[in-house]
């Protein structure tokens, strides 16, 4: 495990503890109790629906493969990115491996992961731009406009970089394919060429590209419904457009802080800063952030545990087969 992610993660946890202590832990707990189990279960249910739509968006880039495999892969991708102290690319590798275990070739898994990630970034750009337009209308002159612009710029650079690399980054795809493991993608130049060919083929699926983009944009917007419902249940209602602005600003700041695993601490600080501009108390802002952390754990930990069981069973069967082959009488 690299030292920098560990240190930034520890610093983020310290920041969360400091914020909760500063704004009174008992007040934060009261806010959590106000949202209640109904709010928490609603957030989890909506988020599972969002993950399913994201899986369907990924599946639209492929033909002849089961939808459930990509929903499962998306679940593992998000669990890896939000629960484990790894980068988003690390979560993407786990998601691609999960899809490959479901019977999709490693070449297609690697190529479509890259395209799907690009579509998601472009959809995030549109989502953040929508939030910026609403922000100017609701709160002209608000100081967080600069982080929003920064987030838009960083996300735009990511999207451009992904497209350029996918067109010209032959070596990167070879490395990504090798990370999927032996048997899922060839380790030779022919394997990298296969990934490049699958990538070109995926970009020719115009309907899948537009459909995937539309679904990803819808998912970004639907994710704001989680917070909107939780606030209404806590008797701290904000209009849906206001919540959408808060969430789009949050993800702009999270994008700018992409180097910090899971945006630990950054998300909490952003919620307090942005929420204050819209009348959201600091303790309620922290409660919403912590509720989303708990949601990720409740959904992600069982998903990763199940994936580990499947992965372990596969490796055990392979080892057993090799052992039997070696001990067969010659």
Characterise this structure:
With 330 residues, the protein is an all-alpha fold. It has one domain. The protein has 12 helices and no strands. It has helices at residues 3-22, 25-59, 67-83, 88-101, 106-138, 145-168, 170-179, 189-203, 206-233, 240-256, 266-277, 282-327. α5 crosses α8. The protein starts with a helix and ends with a helix. The model has no long low-confidence stretch (mean pLDDT 82).
Short description:
The chain has 330 residues and is mainly α. The protein has helices at residues 3-22, 25-59, 67-83, 88-101, 106-138, 145-168, 170-179, 189-203, 206-233, 240-256, 266-277, 282-327. The termini are far apart.
Q: How does the SSE layout of this entry go?
A:
Layout: H1 3-22, H2 25-59, H3 67-83, H4 88-101, H5 106-138, H6 145-168, H7 170-179, H8 189-203, H9 206-233, H10 240-256, H11 266-277, H12 282-327
Helix pairs in contact: 2-3, 2-9, 2-12, 3-4, 3-12, 4-5, 5-6, 5-8, 5-9, 5-10, 6-10, 7-8, 9-10, 10-11, 11-12
List keywords for this structure.
mainly alpha, 12 helices, about 80% helix, about 0% strand, globular
Most strands sheet: none
- On the 0-100 scale, what is the average pLDDT? 82
DSSP helix fraction? over 70%
Contiguous helical run count:
12
Oligomer: single chain
| Low-confidence regions | none
- Alpha-carbon distance between the two ends: 44 Å
- Run of helices and strands: HHHHHHHHHHHH
Structural class, from helix and strand content? Answer: mainly alpha
DSSP summary, beta strand count: 0
């Amino acid at each position: 495990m690299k030292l920098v992610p560990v240190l930034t993660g520890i610093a983020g946890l310290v920041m969360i503890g400091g914020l909760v202590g500063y704004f009174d832990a008992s007040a934060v707990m009261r806010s959590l109790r106000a949202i209640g189990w109904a709010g928490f279960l609603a957030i989890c249910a909506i988020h599972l629906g969002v993950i399913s739509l994201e899986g369907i968006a990924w599946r639209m880039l492929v033909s002849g493969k089961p939808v459930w495999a990509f929903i499962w892969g998306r679940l593992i991708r998000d669990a890896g990115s939000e629960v484990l102290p790894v980068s988003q690319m690390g979560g993407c590798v786990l998601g691609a491996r999960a899809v490959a275990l479901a019977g999709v070739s490693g070449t297609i898994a690697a190529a479509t992961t890259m395209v799907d990630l690009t579509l998601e970034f472009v959809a995030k750009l549109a989502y953040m731009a929508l939030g910026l337009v609403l922000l100017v209308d609701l709160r002209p002159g608000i100081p967080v406009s600069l982080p929003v612009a920064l987030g838009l710029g960083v996300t735009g650079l990511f999207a451009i970089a992904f497209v350029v690399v996918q067109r010209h980054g032959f070596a990167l795809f070879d490395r990504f394919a090798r990370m999927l493991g032996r048997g899922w993608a060839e380790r030779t130049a022919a394997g990298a060429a296969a990934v490049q060919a699958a990538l070109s083929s995926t970009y020719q699926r115009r309907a899948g590209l537009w459909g995937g983009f539309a679904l990803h944009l819808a998912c970004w917007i639907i994710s704001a419904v989680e917070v909107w419902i939780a606030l209404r249940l806590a008797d701290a209602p904000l209009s849906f457009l206001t919540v959408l602005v808060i969430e789009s600003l949050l993800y702009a700041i999270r994008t700018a802080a992409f180097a910090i695993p899971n945006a630990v601490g950054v998300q909490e600080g952003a919620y307090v800063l942005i929420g204050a501009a819209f009348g959201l108390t600091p303790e309620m802002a922290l409660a919403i952030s912590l509720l989303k952390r708990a949601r990720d754990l409740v959904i992600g930990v069982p998903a990763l545990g199940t994936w580990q069981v499947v992965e372990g069973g596969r490796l055990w069967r392979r080892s057993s087969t090799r052992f039997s082959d070696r001990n067969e009488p010659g």
